[in-house]
């Protein structure tokens, strides 16, 4: 689906990921996505030839003085997906599409075929992000932390055990009314949701957990991957 730039502007990227090389029937054509989006919003939708997934667009904000700057965090997978184009050209195009945003690019762990950021971090108000970096190799996790700490206070998700699917706790649905956290049917489920509740006290009694271990295991995605949300006010 299109990615929101501002309350009245979206960008539709090309959904042609390499992890669907053998499953191209699962791709959604650009015209289908745009048609559906136009039924749900009257905002303008710009078409971009860049190959990119919605899961690789994670947004946060930083406040310095009186200024507020939106930040777009992606992994470097976007450069590999668009290998025929020079990396600086991809950056230039993204900067033109997101003129208000600061762009951050995290290293891509090749074991993560999707290369998304929505299982790496989640904004926790201004200047802070919740992360689950302990599932990544040390060198990649260290570099991710360095890049994120250039803008944010980085908060590690507190779990007694980190396993291959614990990234899913970060992959939550977060709306103005509720937060819905994935559950994995593991003892760490309660640890994850309790930590998230402490980080969002303004959502008291409005944070829920839904068990989706079979979806996470079979499809490699969680609740943010399964949803499309947008703001109805200026970013």
Relevant terms:
single chain; 235 residues; alpha/beta; 3-stranded mixed beta sheet; 6 helices; globular
Descriptive overview:
With 235 residues, the protein is of the alpha/beta class. The protein has helices at residues 30-40, 77-81, 87-97, 138-149, 188-199, 213-219; strands spanning 3-6, 9-14, 44-51, 58-64, 67-75, 102-106, 121-123, 128-131, 153-156, 173-174, 179-183, 207-211. The protein starts with a strand and ends in a 16-residue tail after the last helix.
In a nutshell, what does this entry contain?
Helix content is 25%, strand content 26%. It has six helices and twelve strands.
Q: How many β strands by DSSP?
A: 12
Silhouette:
globular
Helical segment count? 6
Helix/sheet category: alpha/beta
Largest sheet: 3 strands, mixed
Please give the share of residues in helix. Answer: 10-25%
Q: For this entry, what is the oligomeric state of its chains? A: single chain
Poorly predicted runs: none
Q: β content, as a range?
A: 25-35%
| Computed Rg | 17 Å
> Strands across the major sheet, in which order?
1-2-3
Mean pLDDT: 94
Tell me the span between the first and last alpha carbons.
18 Å
Report the order of strands and helices. EEHEEEHHEEEHEEEHEH
Lay out the secondary structure.
Blueprint: E1 3-6, E2 9-14, H1 30-40, E3 44-51, E4 58-64, E5 67-75, H2 77-81, H3 87-97, E6 102-106, E7 121-123, E8 128-131, H4 138-149, E9 153-156, E10 173-174, E11 179-183, H5 188-199, E12 207-211, H6 213-219
Parallel strand pairs: 2-3, 5-6, 8-9, 11-12
Antiparallel strand pairs: 1-2, 4-5, 7-8, 10-11
């Amino acid at each position: 689906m299109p990615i929101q730039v501002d309350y009245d502007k979206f960008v539709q990227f090309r959904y042609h990921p390499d992890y669907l090389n053998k499953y191209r029937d699962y791709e959604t054509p650009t015209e289908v996505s745009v048609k559906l989006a136009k039924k749900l919003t009257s905002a303008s939708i710009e078409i971009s030839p860049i190959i990119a997934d919605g899961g690789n667009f994670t947004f946060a904000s930083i406040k310095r003085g009186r200024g507020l700057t939106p930040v777009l965090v992606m992994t470097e997978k976007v450069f590999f997906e668009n290998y025929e184009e020079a990396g600086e050209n991809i950056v230039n195009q993204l900067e033109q599409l997101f003129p208000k945003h600061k762009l951050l690019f995290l290293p891509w762990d090749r074991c993560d075929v999707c290369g998304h950021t929505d299982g790496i971090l989640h904004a926790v108000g201004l200047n802070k992000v919740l992360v689950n970096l302990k599932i990544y190799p040390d060198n990649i996790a260290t570099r991710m932390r360095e890049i994120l700490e250039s803008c944010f206070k980085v908060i590690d998700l507190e779990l007694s055990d980190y396993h291959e699917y614990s990234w899913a706790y970060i992959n939550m649905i977060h709306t103005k009314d509720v937060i819905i956290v994935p559950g994995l049917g593991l003892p760490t489920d309660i640890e994850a949701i309790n930590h998230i509740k402490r980080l969002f006290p303004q959502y008291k009694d409005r944070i829920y957990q839904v068990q989706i271990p079979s979806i996470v295991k079979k499809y490699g995605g969680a609740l943010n991957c399964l949803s499309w949300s947008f703001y109805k006010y200026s970013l």
